[in-house]
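Let us practice reading a record.
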Amino acid sequence: MGRFQVVGATVVDGSGRDPADVAVTVEDGRITALGAAGTNGERLDAGGLTMTPGLIDAHVHLGLSSPIQPQFSFQISAAEIAADIFATAGATLDAGFTTVRDTGGIDGGVVTAIAKGKVRGPRVVSCGPVQCQTGGHGYYGAEWEPTELWSSHHVPGLCALSMMAGNADELRRNVREAFRRGASFLKLCVTGGVVGGKDRLTDTQFTVEEIAVAVQEAAARGTYVTVHAHNNGGIRNAVEAGARCVEHGTDLDEPTAALMAAHGVALVPTFAVLDRLLHDPAAAGLGDSVRERVAGVRERMARALAAAKDAGVRIGLGSDLIGPDQDRRGVELTLRAQLETPMDALVAATKTNAEIIGLPEVGVIAPGMRADLVLWNGNPLEDPTLFSDPANAVTVVQSGRVVKDLR
């Protein structure tokens, strides 16, 4: 469809403004006008539906779409891993997410395959492999296995979970290698994590000086560092070193939130993965022991969200779903709507996420922006559970092309 109009929808433009009943004109992949319906071009009837911008998930792991423990134990073939990755990419698009930021696990080859249209999927920006401290969060090798063997499990062109660094020089080498493979930003683990090996959420990982090396290398390429961080010590180290974003932020307190706000550091909380791991870790290919690590994290993350909001931190939205069946990532908006408002959740998943991931041409329905649009069966501002079911995303438009249509 070169030029067309979407008519009859209630438009929620992603900016936080009140909905409006306007026609949206699309031409050559971009929105060219909002207003009264014209007479030229094809008309896409959206009567009774609600239009939002294409959703953005700022924390995905496409490369972790297979059962986790078998994948980490290298019991799954590259062919099956690839099939799972591409199934997740298609399901993500069908759930209304036209853009994602992959925060670790895929190789640049996956980004390229999707961008070329060889498989269905969202627009992807990726950090490639996560940068980790030797033996820190992101390392899942056996205790007896030499660290040097870990990277030999990468599948070039497909998946690479993480790279280990024992000092600043090794980290510099690794981040340069990540950029060589196609990374467009960097992610470091600066604390332990929930799905961890021997690490604890209270651990801090990498020194300020080491994190600063990654920040320097990212700045040299005009991009940024985000960090996996659950505790305040790790967050403060990252802010001091110049990181621009924090993932999770589980135990973020008021003074640290104020520090983040003062330095313009964004936060991406991740609730959907916690709900899934609490209720059904086996569905992700994990054992019941993960429940103990998740216990209490959701409540603490909710308090961290409130502290960040009070401090004026820019807050995005990410699902962090891992394992098979990542088709309901809109659950993240439903959960956030319970903690804030449905409009807050939508703005976080559109305009704010676009700002955080550095794609200013998406996230808002306005003239000149890319035509990433979703038509919802009902009004998710009145019933945010609609976001949770991909069937409610009846039509998805990506860069002016209809990629799903159930009308």
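A brief commentary: The chain has two domains: 3-53+363-405, 55-329.
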